[in-house]
Design brief:
- The chain is of the alpha+beta class.
- It folds into two domains: 197 residues, Alpha-Beta Plaits (2-Layer Sandwich); 92 residues, Orthogonal Bundle (Chromosomal Replication Initiator Protein Dnaa, Chain: A), CATH 1.10.1750.
- Helices cover 50% and strands 9% of the residues.
- The protein contains 14 helices and five strands.
- A five-stranded mixed sheet has the order 2-3-1-4-5, with helices on both faces.
- Strand 2 and strand 3 form a beta hairpin.
Length: 336
């Protein structure tokens, strides 16, 4: 059987799924599920991939993710290998855990991001045993389902630090209480519509998108033509590093100060300085050495940047104002 075509480029969105070998379970208890998510977070950090939605079922999983670099294959190889090695060692088994290669569908996010996120989050109530369950009870099942990104989206539990919530919630007016309520209502409304499988609408085997998107992908990647940054809004080039001075200018404008005030290690603008370091890390990780980045940030070490990144990421989980500010500045810098 021919292997599915893998289309990779910076900024690409994918729906990724994989099923257990012979449809067997890929988790035996919650310890397995926790390790699965740990391996996912580790791989995200290594390859700077954004996971926007996830759902763990008994014998398969779904991700809605975006790759900042053209590296889906390397990301999934590392992730699947890490979890399989753990699972086989813990349960005294050998061989393949998954049924063949993972399946990846390239997604036209402008058109399908919101609907696809709902499709993923509705998976727990698609089981046959819930066929006759009332819509109200299905809603309660979804909200109580622990191994999904949905509870974090609608404010029912502490958020997963590795999930990017802002893009989906941006379609609901933003990452606010009102935006979270709108998203919850949007997901629940999908129950009364028969929980359709949005993936059935795809017109190409490995692409879910409009005719223009599919045509662009085929001409650019399948027919061997070079990709040009200006050709499509989904794929702004993210490989090139962005000078710290450019980031500092945008952050200083947001906080009402001057760039040079933020480019010193002893800046009195503490939060603005933290945001500058975080954005410099996000936009330049794996594009230039952290030591070099540290020099541009006022002569701090690479380890200091990594520690600052972890502290800010942890803070943003509970501080929605800061999370929104960082996300907004990130998009402004990329769009200029």
């Amino acid at each position: 059987m021919a292997r599915s075509l893998r289309i990779e480029y910076p900024g690409a969105w994918y729906h990724v799924t994989s099923r257990g070998n012979e449809r067997a379970g890929i988790f035996r208890d919650d310890k397995d599920r926790r390790r699965f998510l740990e391996a996912l977070e580790e791989s995200i950090d290594i390859f700077t991939v954004e996971v926007h939605c996830y759902i763990l079922m008994s014998n398969h999983f779904h991700f809605l993710l975006r790759t900042r670099e053209a590296n889906l294959g390397r990301f999934m190889q590392r992730f699947n290998t890490a979890y399989t090695a753990y699972f086989n060692l813990r349960h005294h088994r050998a061989g393949h855990l998954y049924q063949g290669r993972y399946k990846a569908i390239l997604v036209d996010a402008d058109e399908y991001l919101l609907e696809l996120s709902r499709y993923l989050h509705l998976n727990p109530v698609r089981l046959k045993k819930y066929k006759e369950t009332s819509l109200q009870d299905k809603g309660k099942i979804l909200e109580a389902y622990a191994w999904s990104s949905l509870p974090g989206y609608i404010g029912l539990r502490r958020r997963d630090t590795f999930v990017t919530y802002s893009s989906v919630l941006g379609h609901m007016g933003g990452d606010t209480k009102e935006g979270q309520k709108r998203y919850r209502d949007f997901v629940i409304a999908g129950l009364s519509r028969g929980a359709k499988n949005i993936l059935e609408e795809r017109q190409a085997e490995v692409i879910l998108g409009t005719d223009s998107f599919i045509t662009w992908v085929k001409k650019t990647f399948v027919e061997g033509k070079e990709w040009k940054q200006k050709d499509h809004p989904h794929v702004r080039e993210l490989r090139s590093s962005i000078p710290v001075e450019v980031i500092a200018k945008m952050v200083s404008k947001e906080y009402g100060t001057m760039p040079e005030e933020l480019l010193t290690a002893r800046s009195p603008w503490r939060e603005a300085r933290q945001v500058l370091i975080e954005l410099s890390y996000q936009l330049n990780f794996r594009k230039k050495p952290l030591q070099k980045l540290g020099q541009e940030l006022g002569g701090i070490g690479g380890a200091s940047i990594a520690h600052a990144h972890k502290r800010v990421q942890k803070r943003m989980v509970s501080d929605k104002r800061l999370s929104q500010k960082v996300s907004s500045l990130h998009q402004k810098i990329l769009s200029q």
